[in-house]
Amino acid sequence: MNQQVVVLERDCRALLVPHGNEVTLPQGSFVTVSQALGGAYTILVNGSMLRIDSADADALGFEVETLEYDTPVDGEVNVVDVERTLATIYDPEIPVNIVDLGLIYDFQVIKEHGGHNRIDVTMTLTAPGCGMGPVLVEEVKLRVARVPNVHQVEVELVFDPPWDRHRMTEAAQIQLGIF
């Protein structure tokens, strides 16, 4: 996608990159959309980079993209839905989803007291000093919490083992020209 300037059609929640602080952008603001992948939008406003979630795409004048889920009637979590959801999350600066990028090391469904399900995600970043960590962690929490029967999401950011390009899928390596 080429950069596109749009005017917000309504007040909109956004996450400030790289800190992950939530801000509200007012209706009528001019923003530049620099990346639109996985239903999330990386925008530039007055020299700052922010992320707008797929649920707020209409504020940008775009159609809201949602994943379709079948809710298990037994109260369990469909792990395929968790995997599909994680694959919709993109680094704000890299046009590859975090699963293909090799940032997700593991996730577990934990059955808690009262039958509630918690998802524990273990992930990393491309480098320990990568400033995208807080934004990616918040996006993982937000999106995975939408999976049916998920009541809580915990994310642990780890750097051991360290990430390297060999953790990427072959398709991601080809897309980024790293092979």
Overview of this protein structure:
The chain is an alpha+beta fold. It folds into 2 domains: 57 residues, SH3 type barrels (Roll), CATH 2.30.30; 98 residues, GMP Synthetase, Chain A, domain 3. The chain is built from 3 helices and 9 strands, in the order ββββββαββαβα. The chain has a 6-stranded antiparallel beta sheet with strand order 1-4-5-6-2-3, with no helix packed on it. Strands 7-8-9 form a 3-stranded mixed beta sheet, with helices on one face. The mean pLDDT is 92.
Overall residue-averaged pLDDT value: 92
User: What is the correct CATH architecture of the largest domain?
Assistant: 2-Layer Sandwich
- The CATH superfamily of the largest domain bears the name Fe-S cluster assembly (FSCA)
The first-level CATH class name of the largest domain: Alpha Beta
Number of domains: 2
Q: Give the DSSP E fraction (strand runs of 2 or more residues).
A: 25-35%
**Estimated structural class:** alpha+beta
The CATH topology of the largest domain is what?
GMP Synthetase, Chain A, domain 3
SSE pattern, N- to C-terminal: EEEEEEHEEHEH
Rg, alpha carbons: 17 Å
Shape: globular
| Helical fraction | 10-25%
- Total strands: 9
List the quaternary state of the chains: single chain
Spans of at least 5 consecutive residues whose pLDDT stays below 50 are: none
Strand order of the largest sheet: 1-4-5-6-2-3
Q: Sketch the major β-sheet.
A: 6 strands, antiparallel
* Helix run count: 3
